[in-house]
Amino acid sequence: xxxxxxxxxxxxxxxxQQRLESLSRRFVGGPSAxxxxxxxxxxxxxxxxxxxxxxxxxxxxxxxxxxxxxQLTEVIELTAEHDLDVCASVDPTQIGLxxxxxTATRNARxxxxxxxxxxxxxxxxxxxxxxxxxxxxxxxxxxxxLHRTLSDAGLPVAVTIQAYLHxxxxxxxxxxxxxxxxxxxxxAFAEPATVAARHxxxxxxxxRQAAAxxxxxxxxxxxxxxxxxxHDHRIIDEIATLAAANGWPPDAYExxxxxxxxxxxxxxxxxxxxRVRVYLPFGxxxxxxxxxxxxxxxxxxxxxxxxxxxxx
Length: 312
Ligand code: FDA
Hints:
The protein has about 300 residues and is of the alpha/beta class. The protein has one domain (about 30-280): TIM Barrel (Alpha-Beta Barrel). It is about 50% helix and about 15% strand. The chain has an 8-stranded parallel barrel with strand order 1-2-3-4-5-6-7-8, surrounded by 7 helices. The protein is globular, with a radius of gyration of 19 Å. Dihydroflavine-adenine dinucleotide binds near residues 187 and 189.
């Protein structure tokens, strides 16, 4: 699936196929910012918040970087107009990090200022932020530096941290001390053993350790808002138990999952009184993203096969 996702030929061929639309609809909010906002409004009716993401990664073409910044700015403004959380996720390599660090930081600042301005039009409810995604380990330092710069400037910026990285045990306490949103993920890139844990059990155990740190009373005192981004129900249950034991009210942290992945479980968490957000991608480049999701679960593969078969 990763090879398919990286193939430009397959992507060009598949993205033109109307009959694969149901596959894109499963994992993607729509081709444009306005479609994605409609989708986010529908989710909100079900008690689920959204973090908007414009599809594309590792962008080297400055004109595509400019389009990405424009699309994200538009979606930020539209979410505020619809009185949704003003929350967008961004990969530093889609807004200029492939060109240089200054370009990425400048563009991230534009976006964080757009969030601050859009959120400023209505009463602050504390769930507005530009969430910076974390990509492969070659850009971890640059990504943390970008986050630090914007956070020092008082902008509503958040960052993602990967449990599987060895360096996370040093980076996380520093981030917690800063306060604000911190999104914890297991880590999605094929890193060498010198950089990251390579076995699932090891990664899961590090995720649990990092979650415990995020849910320590001192983390709350520092003003941290933990976002546990995982579909792992065992870990989610443990986190909910630990959070309650440590006195965290359910609105002081949240769970985040990918749009279209385990939607029934997302709804169950809402029913259980948890704050739930989905990562909601939009844009034309839906195939590489969707086919990766298919590769992550046999259940999704069955869905993909039936999507192809249904319209044949
Ligand atoms: P894991 O993959 O161990 O799966 C646990 C269980 O969840 C599985 O047994 C299965 O039941 C279920 N499951 C998992 N994936 C599924 C799927 N696609 N379909 C159906 N069931 C599934 N990574 C990164 O490196 N940088 C980042 O910035 C981000 N950002 C990010 C944001 C959000 C909101 C999420 C949810 C994830 C990320 N990730 C990420 C990806 C993350 O690092 C990780 O690769 C995936 O979330 C998969 O790991 P899980 O924690 O879900 O557990």
